[in-house]
Every structure is written in structure tokens, then in C-alpha cells.
Amino acid sequence: MSGTRAVAWTAHRRRWLTVFAAVFAIPALAMLAGCRPGSAPADNEAVPVRPTEAVAQLVDDLRRNDLSAYARHAVPPELHVRLEAAWTEGRTIWPLTELPLDEQLPAMITALAAPDAEKRLMASYDRQFAGAERELRSAASALGLFATQFISNEPTYSDDEREHYVQLAAALSRWGQQAPLGDRKRARSALARLAAAARLTGLAGEGAFAEAGMEHGLVRIAPFLDRTKQVLLGYGLDLDAALDSVELTLVEQTGDRARVRLQYRLADQPVDTMLRLERRDGHWYLSDLLRNAEAAAGPAPPATGPAEPAGTPPEEDAAGEGERAAAAR
User: Fold this and answer.
1) Which among 125, 136, 69, 71 has a CA at the least distance from the CA of 97?
2) Which pTM value belongs to this model?
């Protein structure tokens, strides 16, 4: 790669990584399937009894493209309420915070939704990437190594997350080395489709996510995530196939703690990792996802103590004092 092109790639790679990574997330499942409008909780919704059933429910939510249900099933009701408040206050966009480069997601939606996005981004693509298949393959390999180093040294990840993400980075790096990312015709179509989907979200502009709130925000991000899924399929990355390949095995369960083995294939590469779960109020939840959601929600409000017994009203107390003084005289 020439010096000029290398500098350009460094400057623009985060933008393109966001486009192609935007559907990956939710640490327990590794990828986020395309999303359509969420549904309200069913009155007869089954409650998973076993740890593997809890994970399978989340997989099913994603396979059915119901991100609202995923958010509902991923955390306890009290935490869900706190996350809704934090979203409205602009402090988080959970569960989208589980996505790689989530901090750039609102800005990316805004950039893609701009009236001239297709023309402007295509011009940038032509300058930097069109026909540069060899350079893009090299960049995909280098980014895989960079991602592995970053994951290995990132202190906020648990050991399970770190093991999982390293495998993801390897699978995605291999996919990137084979995908036709330098195909100009394909890129033009992809940008047009992503821009149209970004506009449909109504989430462009500063504060748009907070104004929408968590429930409506998750519904309105649906067209963009679903379209991204389709675009990635056009580049040879089939997320539905990855979700369909999920296999879950209970490794151990001790009281309210459990470990589940998660296996699936992403970009024709095997991923094999462990998940830790914990039981709260009879429900099983992924421990890493709970930890991340708690951090996103912020500190829980202080518990309200029992009300103190009401004292004697001042006027009554004053009247009583007067009567006692009169009696003494």
C-alpha cells in the first residue's frame, strides 16, 4: 500500500469498519441480526427454566429480528427501567452499546442520512478503495491483528469476552480478506441501500436517540440494521446462518451460577466459547451482559427507607403547652 493510500485508509477505516461491524454485538451471541419493529411482551410468554434455555431465548429473539424482546429478556425488569431512563437522558443507547464502535453509530446514522450521502461517500470510496482489492485484503489482515491486540489488552473485558472476541476478530479478518470490498458497483449499491435505511430511522441529528427513547429507538433503528444485514450478505457474510448454527451445552450449574458452552460458525469459521450466567428472582441472565448493562444504566437510585412517624404538629404542641401552663397556675 502506498504511503498516501495507507494514510487515507487509517483516516477512513473507522467509518468503514462501523458500516461492516454494525451488526455484530451482544457479547453472548457475537452478532446482532437485522431488526424489525419489536413486539409487546406476551401474557403467556414462557420463562426459561434452564441456563441454556435463557441463552436460546436470546438467540431466538435475534433470529426473529425482535430487538425489543431481546432487551426485555436480557436484563431484570428493574434494570430495564433504569436503562430506559438512561437512554432518554442521553447517557446510553444500550443494547446498541454492545456493538463495535457504538460511539460512532449515531454519527454514522447522521452521515448516511444526509441528503448528499451517496454522492459524497461514493466519491470518498472512489478515491480510497475502488479496485484496491490487494490493499483491502492486506488491511483486513492488519486490522485482525490490531483487533486481537486491542482485545487482549482491554481491561474492561472479562476473560470469557476476551476469548470470544479474539475468535470473532479472526473470523471477520478472514472474511474481509476474501470479501469483494473493492468492487465499485457493489459498493455503490450498498451505500445507496444503507443511506436509504438510515433516513428511515428518523434518528439522524444530535439528541435523536435520546428523544426517541429506548423502546422507540430500538424499533426505529430496525431498517438500518436489517439493511446492513442484507448488505453484508451480499459480501458473503450470512448472519442468519451463523444464528442458525448456534449450539448450546450446559457445562456446569452450582446454585444460582452456571456456565454454558456456545458454539457456532461465522464466515465459515468455528467459534467456541463459554458464557457465564446467574439467576436473579428465578430468571437466568448472562453475567457479562448484566455487568455491561449495569454500567450503562449508571448507579441505582438510593433505596427509600420507611417513613418516620409523624411528630406532633407544631400548633398542637404549642396549644398543649399553653393548657399545661394554665393548669399549673
Assistant:
1) 71
2) 0.76
Cis peptide bond N-terminal to 223, omega within 30: no
Judge residue 221's burial from the number of C-beta atoms within 10 Å of its C-beta, 0-12 exposed, 13-18 middle, 19 or more buried: buried
For CA atoms 298, 106, 168, 11, give the dihedral sign. Answer: negative
Q: Which domain holds residue 212?
A: 3-328
3-state helix, strand, coil in the chain (%, to 5): 60, 10, 30
Record the cell numbers describing residue 179, joined without a space: 470479501
317 bridge partner residues: none
**Count of domains forming the chain:** 1
129-138, 155-164, 174-183, 282-291: which range is least confident on average? Answer: 129-138
Instruction: Take residue 10 and report the three cell numbers written for it.
Output: 487509517
Separate counts of helices (H) and strands (E) for the chain? 14, 4
CA angle at 27 for the pair 26 and 32, rounded to the nearest 5°: 30
At 247, phi and psi to the nearest 5? -125, 135
